[in-house]
Amino acid sequence: GSEIILEFDIDTTVPTIWGFFEGLDYSHENSSQWLQIAPKLTITSSEADMKINYTINNGEPVEYIEELVISEGYNEIRVYGEDRGGNVAESLLYVVKVDSKTPRADLIIDDEPVDGWYRNKDVELELLLRQEEEGASPTYIYYKWNGAAAKLYKEPLSIPEGSTSFVYWVEDEAGNSMETKSMEIKKDSVLPSLFVSLQGASSNRLLQGENLTVDLSGSADDSGIAFYRIDYGDGSSVSWRVSGTFTKRYTTAGTYNITTYVKDSAGNIVNKTIMITVDPIIVDDESSGNGGSNTGLYISIGAVVVVIVLLLIVIEVAVIMRR
Question: What is the pTM of this model?
Fold first, then answer.
């Protein structure tokens, strides 16, 4: 009969596959770290004609042909290998997290400044991260007030009174960081203290025609007093100016309400009203005018008469003595 020769290739050897990353010393211990640069994964095997597939994040299997460039975000990569004999290699698992994008944050203040100053007592500052891409590394915002120690931003911040230096920046776990932003924030929600000094008046009274000096220069404010103003209560006034000393002469007797104003550098205004009385000058008819002249004349004539009488007495005494 015919001779039949059967040839069998028997392969019971379990193949091996390896993987390595260009520029990355990967280990399962450091797989929790975020990378700024996406590495490339190369797969080799113990048998040249093996079929190698991989999946990313439990997706559909993809045949491995050339080095694999890892995408941004979280990547769970499983690699499978099988030789022609059906022997299956032990699979490989890699967890690679990549984030190469610079994080950003925007500063928002819930108020509008006036001449560069915030005057609302409860004004707050908020730092908002820009929309993060899916799979980005955890991001943190840090800030400083006036060069103090950095703090982790967690919630809106109340802006302090005065002129303050504010610095903030953003970092992520991959080591990417936003450039440091700095700005000066000025807030003054406190009204200035208005101090009024009257010179030339006693107990808020003065005579008609006398000079009255109103001095507001003793007023104070943390941001500084910028301007002064006064309304004299008689229809005249002086608009905002940098000098706090005002001089006024009332020519008509009466009662006047003087209103004074001060404005600080932030634009806060406070006022105070003081009532003064201007007394008329009373003229004594007996000491002025014709009556006064007649009185002086009478006094002069009386004095002459007295002198004449005294001289006559002296002459008469002298005559008697001669006898």
Answer: 0.69
